[in-house]
Backbone:
């Protein structure tokens, strides 16, 4: 996500911080490189111009005062500007608490409407659980454009265990009335309404959506935009705004190698919030769009808050309790290879290594070869651990050469790989002891 911009911006900040003293030439170079990066990432020209003009005096001051502090001011200023452009620090609640709540999704064909319905449902389920208010969610579609569209949503609804309304009518407007009526009868709290798309903006789509919206009276009318379409998505947004109107946007496919300019362009041109971003094809791949977190990621400062939320969402309470036990054992030095295996499984469940690393500070500096190596290493470790007996996993000290040889053969690997695993395991234990001496993880991250 924002890969290109993140690489350029974090490299530029690193470069600036590596300079003992900033010269006038450095300032010029910094500004022109920042401008190039933003232009290449499809950030609108006017936005870039304003940003550069605002940064210039701050950099000049840093060059004049020559203190380490003043360079931090530059980083801070870039961060603050990105936050401002992306929507500011205002906390934005995506949906109102009203019931019944009608949420209507619109967008071009293939932008990700139907998948996003599933993602929103999952997000609502997770939030309802947290607030202990159980909500009845029902999905329905008025997409009669593609023959398989309705079945696609029905399938997703079944998978997520939410309600689904199938209409008799094949006319979008009549179907909308049917959906509202049935949702009322079924006491739905939240109705997620999927609509048809078209390849391009056309009058028939705009008329259809306007009519559907007139009947559905949605509480939230959301535009789904494909981030991969770059600046083109801006024209789409403007057209929807002019003909149908909408309240907020969800930007999908942010996991692709998009430059991220679409988000900047949208924010710079339309004064509406982006409420979520889609970061993958699965129902769990939805993140609230928090400008501070995004800016932090672009500048290579990571996004630990989202990573923690993601972890919490991935694991149910019981699993979390188990991981807490493992963490406790790790800190007490009783950590076994069994626990090590459980930790590997946990990482596996959270998604690809690439995805997890993308939330960490300095992510853009990790090459894809390193990530591939890391993933291959994890795969080997799993194979080795599964070739061990329970006793060996609990008491790794008993692993003598003959046992190691048997394990290596069982996992189709070399003895050196078994040694590599044991070495990593020892390192983890050593690291844990160090953390314990320092007062535990909670003191490091300021979390209890
Ligand atoms: N990588 C990635 N793929 C996505 C994301 N959102 C949707 N997709 C994929 O994009 C394709 C189209 O998604 P749909 O949800 O069917 O799009 P739609 O807007 O409902 O399309 P129509 O119903 O044809 O108008 C599917 O293959 C999805 O899996 C995302 O955030 N990341
Ligand atoms: Mg669809």
Residues:
């Amino acid at each position: 996500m924002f890969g290109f911009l993140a690489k350029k911006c974090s490299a530029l900040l690193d470069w600036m911080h590596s300079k003992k003293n900033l010269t006038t030439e450095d300032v010029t170079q910094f500004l022109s490189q920042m401008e190039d990066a933003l232009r290449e990432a499809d950030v609108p020209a006017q936005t870039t111009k304003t940003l550069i003009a605002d940064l210039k005096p701050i950099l000049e001051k840093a060059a004049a005062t020559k203190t380490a502090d003043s360079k931090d001011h530059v980083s801070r200023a870039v961060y603050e500007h990105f936050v401002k452009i992306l929507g500011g620090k205002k906390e934005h609640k995506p949906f109102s608490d009203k019931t019944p709540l009608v949420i209507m999704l619109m967008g071009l064909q293939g932008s990700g409407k139907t998948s996003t319905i599933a993602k929103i449902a999952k997000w609502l389920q997770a939030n309802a659980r947290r607030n202990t208010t159980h909500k009845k969610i029902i999905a329905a579609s008025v997409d009669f454009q593609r023959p398989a569209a309705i079945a696609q949503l029905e399938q997703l609804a079944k998978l997520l265990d939410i309600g689904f309304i199938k209409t008799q009518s094949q006319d979008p407007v009549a179907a909308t009335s049917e959906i509202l009526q049935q949702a009322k009868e079924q006491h739905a709290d939240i109705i997620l309404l999927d609509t048809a798309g078209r390849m391009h903006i056309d009058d028939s789509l705009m008329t259809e959506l306007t009519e559907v919206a007139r009947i559905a009276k949605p509480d939230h009318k959301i535009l789904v935009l494909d981030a991969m379409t770059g600046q083109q998505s801006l024209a789409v947004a403007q057209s929807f705004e002019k003909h149908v109107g909408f309240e907020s946007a969800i930007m999908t496919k942010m996991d692709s190698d998009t430059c991220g300019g679409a988000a900047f362009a949208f924010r710079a041109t339309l004064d509406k919030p982006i409420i979520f971003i889609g970061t993958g094809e699965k129902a769990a791949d939805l993140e609230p769009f928090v400008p501070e977190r995004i800016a932090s990621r672009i500048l290579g400062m990571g996004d630990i808050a989202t990573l923690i939320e993601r972890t919490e969402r991935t694991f149910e309470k019981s699993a979390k309790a188990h991981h807490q036990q493992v963490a406790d054992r790790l800190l007490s030095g009783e950590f076994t290879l069994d626990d090590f295996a459980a930790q590997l499984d946990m990482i596996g469940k959270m998604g690809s290594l690439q995805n997890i690393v993308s939330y960490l500070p300095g992510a853009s500096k990790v090459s894809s070869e390193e990530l591939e190596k890391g993933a291959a290493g994890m795969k080997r470790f799993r194979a080795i651990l599964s070739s061990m007996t329970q006793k060996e996993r609990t008491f790794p000290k008993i692993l003598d050469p003959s046992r190691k040889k048997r394990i290596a053969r069982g996992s189709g690997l070399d003895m050196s790989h078994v040694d590599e695993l044991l070495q990593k395991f020892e390192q983890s234990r050593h690291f844990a002891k160090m953390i314990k001496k320092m007062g535990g993880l909670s003191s490091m991250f300021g979390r209890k």
In short: The CA atoms of residues 39 and 45 lie 7 Å apart. The first helix runs from residue 3 to 18. The first strand starts at residue 101 and ends at 106.
